[in-house]
Amino acid sequence: MPDFQIKTPPDTYDVIIVGSGAGGGMAAYVLAKAGAKVCLLEAGQHYDPADPKYITQMKWPWQSPRRGASTRYRPFGDFDAAYGGWDIEGEPYTTVPGTTFRWFRSRMLGGRTNHWGRISLRFGPDDFRRHSIDGLGVDWPIGYEDVAPFYDKVDKLIGVFGSKENLPNDPDSIFLAPPKPRLHELLLKKTNKRLGITTIPSRLSILTEPINDERGVCFYCSQCNRACIAYADFSSSSCLCKPASKTGNLDTLYFAMAREVLTDAKTGLCTGVSYVDTQTLEEKTVRGKIVVLAASACESARLLLNSKSPRFPEGLANSSGVIGKYLHDSTGASRSAIVPMLFDRKRYNEDGVGGLHVYSPWWLDNKKLDFPRGYHIEYWGGMGMPAYGFGWGIEKQNGMFPDRNGNKREAGGYGAALKDDYRRFYGAYIGMAGRGEAVPREDNYCEIDPEKVDKFGIPVLRFHYKWSDYERLQAKHMHQTFERIISELGAIPLSDTPGPDQDYGLNAPGEIIHEVGTVRMGKDPKSSALNGWQQAHDVKNLFVVDGAPFPSQGDKNCTWTILALSMRASEYIVQERKAGNL
Amino acid sequence: MKRRDLLKNAGLTTLGLAGLSPQIKAAEWLDPAVDLAASGAEKGGKDFEQFGRTEYEKQRDAKLFKEVFFNKHEMKTIAVLVDIIIPKDERSGSATDAGVPDFIEFMAKDKPELQTPLRGGLTWLDTQASRRFGRQFIECTAAQRIEIVEDIAYPERKKNGMSQGIAFFSLMRNLTASGFWSSKIGIEDIGYQGNVANVWNGVPEEVKRQYGVEEE
């Protein structure tokens, strides 16, 4: 008898995964390959960077009427491969007055991995035991040696280039050949050597050599943020979700915004996920034996906090009360400069790979500094493709330099002389960005806003986040370093030193988009929500595999560790199922 | 770069990969893409749809194209101004040759926060022209226009009563530069040589010598 009211498919999946980014894609890949019947819920739409209807790669700026300028819908520019942003219509979040958090979300298969920087750094041994070193935060329940075999497997499965350096807290991966530095990067290497700032080939998940038949190799267009038509860079959509689908074991549900994890009142175990179809606003349910959350650190916390029941009155798996707390993003501060020695430079194609060819891993000892945690430096520069914003602010620059005949110029201007200034300055800019480790704090958190819901009727997050002096003094040090580099290079900074009134130039929390910590793992169920396998202490068939389980961020980017940990947790799920424990 | 070159440079002709390889698909796709670029869609209002828009973005852009913000007089004034800022010279055409007025019209609709500074600035300019010469800016002689522009083109010159004009001219300068250098004409002039499939082999030897840098 047909019954149109039935929204629940008859199938019970072995595993339901919420979210298709780095963590969810890896879980889908490992579990579907292992033969599990998997349902993947994605809040956004399908995306495949090789499908012409999605392609922005290799487009010229004039193909965009706004010449690549950002919009509310593409905050990183009109060609960027992230659908969503800081401010999504109908999906608000709030902040407690006097605090700030900016939350970037991508609503598409692969999530934020479609446009990310591909900076693929392993955490080092010290990153798992910061409390033991400086007494702040907590140690992880696992150590580098637990994750190392999975880093190895991720390296081989996905591919990362870099150079063997044997640094103590920046472990080498199994590297593909790194691209040679560009001119500004050679200059930075030379400068930084004099200054004692370690500067080595970057470590990006971009294929400089073929690794399998399913992915091509880099053709050096520098546009990884637009996602790659040859699948030569890592994104979860093309490198994990797509092959997972090919097993026939994976069903992906698009436009499926998870609302609540369902549990059995008697056993307290997960039984499925209820979600809203964002196109019809219908409430639907999918049943599964195991639930894996990978909706992003804040979205997974939100989902658990919204999954309240008489048995779990404070939200699912939250008997510790830690869910939402210890939210922390990487710190960020940046500076740019103009390099007179590069005026009128010879033109050639130096696009290279998407992003930096060299970087500086943390090179100092915090015991000798007035802040507890380190940072790395990313660099940019070169003769890039002009787009919206090109030459912006030249009226603050061209007055600083005499013309080719040595005559003093007036800032600003117009006409042929101005036109020539743009040519002269092209490719003569560099920039550097510090990305550091923040100290996780209980009072930096997200919680359910008591009043607001989104357009799907789901209660939204309210953030409470403030930087402390640990981060401010780190940012102050970043700018001191930037100024040393800029000065040594004979360059001129394009902005003044930010002072204490500007938090020493710290980006607002959330802006670096490395937020972690909201469903942290630990040995003690009183102070953590997950065990060392990222399995909920309170609910054994519930796992979290995005950035939420991180007890602390390293001075690295988090994606490579999310991938390794998701692979580790997923293999654990397979073992436990085989052993009859799940 | 053509398909065969991409494949050759990527070392794939010797690898004997199957016909469904992403590299080959990418290479096949790139040829028409380059042709499309060469066809030039830079002159505003058409051929913008083929760059990976979401459905919502397509609708929004179509709506913006239908709207008109600047009136004819304003558009004429913009055209005169942008060519004063970036004129034709021996290397390349002018800002209007590169379609900059249409670009500025689109940006005013796309970023509504630009509307008041631009419209107000254009009116400020006409008020100046009218006070000094008794006519609108575009009706002035070339010498009269330049007399006004000289007063607002140099932010560090302190001129009484000109600061709002200076701010407007800086905005126009920046928008003009954005629109001109991101056009086909501008990109050819500036000498950007990328956005093609290639293999990066490092900084050319003569450039390394020029700057005294070495790879290790």
Oligomer: heterodimer
Helix-strand string of chain B:
HHHHHHHHHH
Coarse shape of chain B: extended
| Biggest beta-sheet profile of chain B | none
Q: Uncertain segments of chain A of ≥5 residues (pLDDT<50)?
A: 1-8
Strand content of chain A: 15-25%
Please give the number of β-strands of chain A: 18
Report the end-to-end length of chain A measured between terminal Cα atoms: 35 Å
Helix content of chain B: 55-70%
Largest interface (CB within 8 Å) is between: A-B, 86 and 93 residues
Q: What's the total count of β strands of chain B?
A: 0
The computed structural class of chain A is alpha/beta
Q: Which structural category fits the helices and strands of chain B? A: mainly alpha
Number of helices, where a helix is a run of at least 4 consecutive DSSP H or I residues of chain A: 9
Helical content band of chain A: 10-25%
Q: Please give the radius of gyration of chain A in angstroms.
A: 24 Å
* First-residue to last-residue Cα separation of chain B: 30 Å
The main pleated sheet of chain A reads as: 7 strands, mixed
How would you state the average pLDDT of chain A, rounded?
Answer: 96
The SSE string of chain A, one letter per element, is EHEEEEHHHEHEEEEHEEEHEEEHEEH
Low-confidence residue ranges of chain B: 11-19, 33-46
